[in-house]
Design goal:
This protein has about 210 residues and is α/β, with parallel strands linked by helices. About 40% of the residues lie in helices and about 15% in strands. The protein is built from ten helices and six strands.
């Protein structure tokens, strides 16, 4: 029986969240300009990187309700991929570890991501904030994993020091941070109280085995 659990954040830990954003922009562009979507997509990406409000641009230009755009963005089937080597590593580790995900966001959005990444088949448990009614760093999200998996040891991998590590640290879990290479949606700030910091840092998924 497996008595160890590897618990994972989703966005910017298992895949690049910026790819979900690009996928959403592409979906919207194809809905609004089906015959020639690429120029609109490129412009949305440009606006985003300039720090401008892409959705305001779209509502003004196309006279479309914001709620419709947000529905398209949040609930589309995303074109995203796991970080390099992640699938092989997780597939090997599942021989010795139970696998779980703790993620914040809307249920449909996050489950569409898990489906696109083909993770549903290897996960033993999933916690999504909208489904449980609380967001990280609320300890309830982590306690739900403990209650479900009943393991002796828990290891958590995330990327956001503001909310990912403080609760599992207090629960006695080992915590690992995947460092941002400059593309993360939420930039990492490690100049915070030590209780919010992870025990270990990795820059690539291939470094994980040496830490476990």
């Amino acid at each position: 029986m497996k008595n160890k659990a590897l618990v994972l954040d989703l966005d910017d830990t298992l895949y690049a969240e910026i790819d979900f954003l690009y996928s959403g922009y592409k979906h919207i562009s194809m809905r609004l300009e089906p015959e020639n979507w690429k120029p609109l997509f490129d412009h949305l990406v440009e606006l985003y990187h300039r720090g401008e409000n892409t959705f305001k641009y779209l509502t003004d230009k196309y006279q479309i309700e914001l709620s419709i755009l947000l529905e398209w963005y949040r609930y589309h089937s995303p074109d995203i991929k796991l970080f390099k080597h992640t699938w092989e590593i997780l597939n090997n580790l599942r021989k010795d570890y139970k696998l779980a995900v703790i993620t914040d966001g809307r249920s449909i959005t996050q489950r569409n991501k898990l489906k696109a990444l083909n993770l549903e088949e290897i996960l033993d448990f999933v916690v999504i904030s909208e489904e449980i009614g609380s967001e990280k760093p609320d300890p309830r999200n982590f306690l739900a994993v403990q209650d479900a998996l009943q393991c002796q040891k828990y290891i958590y991998i995330g990327d956001n020091p503001q909310k990912d590590f403080v609760s599992p640290n207090k629960l006695g879990w080992e915590t690992i941070c995947l460092r941002d290479k400059g593309d993360n949606i939420h930039k990492q700030d490690f100049n915070i109280h030590s209780e919010f910091l992870p025990h270990f840092y990795i820059s690539e998924w291939t470094e994980l085995i040496a830490v476990l």
